[in-house]
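Continuing the series of single-chain predictions for the mutant panel. This is the parent chain; the variants come on the following pages.
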Amino acid sequence: MKSMKSCHSLILVTTILVFTLVLSACAPAPSAEALRQTAVAETLTAMPPDATPEPSQISTAIPPTPTEKSTPVPIPTVGPSGPSDFPKDVNPLTGLIVEDPELLNRRPVLVKVANFPASGRPHAGLSFADIVFEYYIGEGINRFIGLYYGQDALQIGPVRSGRLVDPQLTLMYEGILGFKGADSRVYSEITSLLGNRAITGTENTCPAICDNGDNTVTSIFADSDALSQLAGARGVDNSRPMLDGMRFDPAAPANGVEANHVNVIFNILDRGEWVYDPDSGKYLRWIEEADVAENVTMIPLVDRLTDEQLAFSNVIILFAYYTEYAPTLHDIGIWDNRTSQRAVIFRDGQAYDVYWRTADTDAPIQFLDQNGEIFPLKPGNTWMVLMSMISSAVQTEDVWDFNFYMQ
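Parent structure:
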């Protein structure tokens, strides 16, 4: 484990010992995990989720923006690769050859991206991400994290606040986290786990994270390359990490079930739809445009940098345990899944019922088929949705509906 993880572990062990001494006289000692959850719950504050426990005024300096629309770099595919021994010019998170192999000699950059308020749409830079994680943050709404490794994006956002799951995902992919503020307890957890690999937008972070001049909650954007450089300047070891664990194959596995349409619903006014496009071999993203609940229209979700609809090679629904401490404060059991939980992978117009697991706290999520073998993703970008364990999954012919429910 890295040194900052050891520090975090020491703090955690100390907390557990204190609780154990207090409780041992009157009750059997609870498990370490129960103590961890109790410690987290009891130290939460009533601060709003987007508050920051330190001065965090965003610079009004306008960051560089594209003068014309850009597109993600066309990337050549390779044959089967992974879960280890990737060629030096192959991205272990996409299975694709990168145009600039030097980009792989650094840590991935993860950036928090708001989906609400909807005035911040269309988002910037999501089509450049290798992986996008989507999860519930409370009050019926979701949020994204884009992971950038094989290519950079000049604008990513709007950037919003951190959550408890963010440092876990960042450590699993050996990354750097860019965000804007957090609840004080969440901020403490992020910095405890990540140290100087956590960068929140302040007056000193432009052009890595800065306001575009509008000074609103949806006007803060990040630059992945600038974040990487800022982390290095702050003393982060920004050398190439070990990211083994994922497997890729252009050939779709046998025994898939037809799946041309995937609906992910957090509530009637927060939904995403993926429609398979056989010409590109990718799933295209749609999003709600709603005035009222009775008037919901689905429109293409585009990247404001390209004006093109988001298209992903793999869409994955993972079922995980959510723990709610407050209406807008949750933990998600990503690190705890060592024995495998259900996931559904969509690739090439097919659905595959599989399992996902966490091999270690500093290793990417792995997907296993029904025989326990590592499941091959399609080479390319991946969108992962973290649904709760009690969320529903209903298949009707080639349409799959996933409805989020909080435990």
